[in-house]
Amino acid sequence: MSTSPGLKYIKTIREFELTDKVVFLRLDLNVPIDGGKITDETRITASLPTIKYAVDRGAKLVLASHLGRPKTKDDIQFSLEPVAQRLSELLGMEVLLVEEPKSNAAKALLAGLKKNQIILLENLRFEPGETKNSDEFASILASYCQIYINDAFGASHRAHASIEALPRMMKEKGIGFLIEKEIQILDQLLENPARPYLAILGGSKVSDKIGVIEKLIDVVDTFIIGGAMAYTFLKARGVPVGKSLVEADKVAYAKEMMARIEARHKSLILPQDHIVTADFKSGRGELCTQQAIADNMMGVDIGPKSLGACEAAIRGAKTIFWNGPMGVFETEVFSKGTFGIAKAMAESKAPMRIVGGGDSAAAAEASGYASQMTHISTGGGASLEYLQGDKLPGLEILRNRRPSVEAKL
Ligand code: AMP
């Protein structure tokens, strides 16, 4: 068993005898697909080590994943077909796509499965029972599998049938290499971070990040707050922010948070200058050299002076955790702050440079510096929930608790 606290009493795939066993491998193959083409295959490549390990040990593999949020089975743009094809190329194996995971097709294929073949179930969310955590759906899946392995970190915060109900029914269950790595890294951010520890938070809403701020306030040495979030904090300081996005009901929280950061003698870096626009759909921005923003303008990126302050903090840090873009990075003219953070992190000598999934993973990817990070989490929501101390249903169900032993400890 692993020593990382978050993995206590959870078996890893290494602890199972896999030869000739039917292994249900829940993966997160939820990749962006545009016109039938996969536009970012990070999640597929991140799943390969566990797949290859199981294949090498002679397991009969049933891979499963969700993709997007289909409303019905007819939403064929959510089919895993392109993923099956890409997996087949990457593995040099035949990937058999089973369109009806509830039918007998999987069982029939398993009976005659050849060494160079693996099964991939079609998008689990085509089946309404998946998101309802249906026992009925889970028991059908359980009926043809002997070992359950979860390696879908990005989906483990959801109590869905393939994440919770299915492993609840299985005796043999554990995690793959991706989840193991994700949790080990997130645990290091909480338990034993090298100092100075810098957390860079951005994105659209303070409300989404409150949990993680609360948790990190005791461990982090310096916070950088950028993105739209920053305007709620600036407003709380009494700085005019024009038409920038502000969560009016979180201004008091931001004020209190700043007082707590100060009381703990920690640092907070807020934008000192900005890129502003009168209309962000116009794609035109201008530099606002001061912290205060004119009434008719909205802040859409941090300015060069602010980026300079962020770069200096990044250079001095040993642990860096980044979640949330510094601006509307999807528009090129508003992307300099976000991409500047990615570049500074890539150039930093900090042993831990972690990008916390979701939009910041997409931004790191778009910046061209993704490969130079220590780790980019494959789960945005899951990594934030884990960091803020929430229990992930997909992990909890795999914990092989021994109550009598635990009670004595
Ligand atoms: P989140 O999902 O909370 O990480 O937010 C990511 C989104 O925040 C991205 O789509 C950005 O375009 C958006 N965002 C970042 N900065 C700003 C800003 N200053 N104003 C409006 N939206 C922003």
Amino-to-carboxy terminus distance: 18 Å
Give the strand content.
15-25%
Large-scale geometry: elongated
| Radius of gyration of CA atoms, rounded to a whole number | 23 Å
**Helix share bin:** 25-40%
Q: State the helix count.
A: 15
Average pLDDT figure: 94
* Low-pLDDT ranges: 404-409
Ligands in the structure? adenosine monophosphate
Number of strands: 17
Gist of the model:
Helix content is 36%, strand content 16%. By secondary structure, it is α/β, with parallel strands linked by helices. A six-stranded parallel sheet has the order 5-6-4-1-7-8, with helices on both faces.
Describe what you observe in this structure.
With 409 residues, the protein is α/β, with parallel strands linked by helices. The protein is 36% helix and 16% strand. The protein contains 15 helices and 17 strands. A six-stranded parallel beta sheet has the order 5-6-4-1-7-8, sandwiched between helices. A six-stranded parallel beta sheet has the order 11-10-9-15-16-17, with helices on both faces. Strand 12 and strand 13 (286-288) form a beta hairpin. The longest helix is centred in the first third of the chain and has 15 residues, at 42-56. It is elongated. Residues 404-409 have low confidence and may be disordered. Bound molecules: adenosine monophosphate. Adenosine monophosphate (AMP) is lined by residues 203-205, 208, 227-228, 245, 299-300, 324-325, 327-328, 330, 358-359.
